[in-house]
Protein: DUF2878 domain-containing protein
Organism: Ferrimonas pelagia
Amino acid sequence: MSARDLVLTSTAFNGFWLLAVWGQWDWPLLLGLAAVWLRWPRAGLWALPIALVGVGLDSLWTQAGVFRFEQLPGWLLVLWLGFGTYAWALRRVVVAAPSHWLALIGACAGAMSYWAGVRLGAVSWPMGLVPTLSLLWLEWFLLTLAIQAGLRRAMQSDSRRACAHRVRPGEEA
């Protein structure tokens, strides 16, 4: 992925994030994701488990009193599906990145995105800023490493499958 493509993809995801968190446009964004998944079905397959884990973690934090939502919003699921799709789109960059740097960037960006959600009024943090940011930083550090490991496995599996289907010279197709 070129630097230009990385910037464009990341800018598109940040716009998606803003529409989900601030605009709370769950249905239009879900339709947009469905269009992406029709073109790249593996992105949708990858996004679903990430969304389930993400919504599960957010539900856990809500039950534990770390987050407060009026109710667990539909846009949150759409946001996690969008993030999973974004991770799939960046899979080559994610897999190639040194794990320690990627985890630090993921921890900071993930935690700060929740803080931005607080600033936009989408969620509140009853425990306060420092404890919540600390928990989120740790969560995103570990989540980033898990996503990188999962993408590595997925790409290795794809590579093995592609090698198994190649036709050697002299063999019939």
Remarks:
- Residues 3-164 form one domain.
